[in-house]
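Summary for the funding panel

The consortium committed to producing paired sequence-structure records for every protein in the target list. Below we show the first two records in order, beginning with the earlier of the two.
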Amino acid sequence: METIFKHRSIRRYKPDAIPENILDRILEAATRASTTGNMQLYSIVVSTDPKVKQALSPCHFNQPMVTEAPVVMTFCADIHRFDLWCEQRGAEPGYDNFLWFVNGAIDALLASQNAVLEAETHGLGICYLGTTTYTADKIVEILRLPKGVIPVTTVVMGYPTDCPPLTDRLPVEAVVHRDTYHDYTPEAIDRLWAERENSDETKRLLAENGLPNLARIFTERRYRKEDNVQFSRTYLDLLRKQGFMKQ
């Protein structure tokens, strides 16, 4: 629990390698995550070779942490391995569809969180890279992923150079609903975002971007509709290419 409440994203890393026994423990922790039907519909590609990390860097918008961190883990939804097992046993797999991409994505994300928690207990820092789904088609080529395997998220991992402050979160009441979903009134929206909107960090961002509120920063700077639509199309095309949309 202490590890959970101290979590923060680390974007600067020392060059020190992660000892193999610790890395093995982290990966073993990942495999103990909950999984659909005990099928483990995921694979983890662990990249430590500087050449591979350099090749992956543009896929993550050349963020320095991709090449600085000693380990880059790409978590993938993977029906390929289970399909092979079924076929070798004379069973006909029926997992080449969107439902089983969702199941594989859930499995991969659960495994990634287990890996992250174990890493942080050893004093390591991590950062999730949302850019994975933006450029998944290029990652498929670099990591030589076969049909039935698609990247879902990436985690960089290593020893932090510093310890940034905790990132704020919305209050628990913002995300928890009791028994049924309770929709938000305008007054509730104002109350739930009040602390974040009035923070020094938000004031700095507004000044830097020349915009009147934080919501406009998200919609006009960080996650623009035109980008969202384009990345969605690219990822859906890749789902078809990788065999998740046949049925």
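The next record, for a separate protein in the list, is shown here:
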Amino acid sequence: MENNEELKAEVVEEVSTDVAQESTVVEEVATEAPAEEKPAKSKRGRGKKQKIETVAEEKPQSEWTENVVQISRVTKVVKGGKKLSFRAIVIVGNKKGQVGVGCAKASEVIIAIQKAIADGRKNVINVPIFKTTIPHPVQAKSGAGCVMLRPASQGTGIIAGGAVRSVLELAGIENILAKSLGSKAPLNAANATLEALKSLSTFGDMAKKRGLSMAEFLN
């Protein structure tokens, strides 16, 4: 019995020494090997696309403004049948005393508008503006259209309608009284308004014609 107890004690001592040696080896290895860094988790959510910021190039804005007054279908009878096209009436102006009216035809609406804009810029006129209105009353005709224009006080606005209003707005006039006395077709009304604005004259021009100074002309 004593021999068995002695053997058990020796075995326990050997096992405890082996365990102690293994623990020291593990500690040395842990101190020598650096800790592995965990990969950082990406902040992107699943199924979400990354937004790409695009810098929009700023295009220089043109001072000219276009207003499409009318687009009408035109049917022409030819030998093989009927030919369909579109007519566009466009008013072009910079709201600084320059305005023009263009009219063109084409087989497509977009092409007709582009041609009308080009035609309107070719026929631009200069409008004499006194403060925010016209210098004097005027009346003019173009075909069957007849338009009467009268100056108005500050705050009146543009008292007009249809194509006449569009021409006056794009010319840069803010206060005016207008009345269409003839045909109310947009092209006739616009051309009559353009003729009325053409016939306007400034106070300086009238003073030169009479051989007077501006002080004498205006008393």
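Regarding this second record: The chain is about 35% helix and 25% strand. Confidence is low (pLDDT under 50) at residues 51-56.
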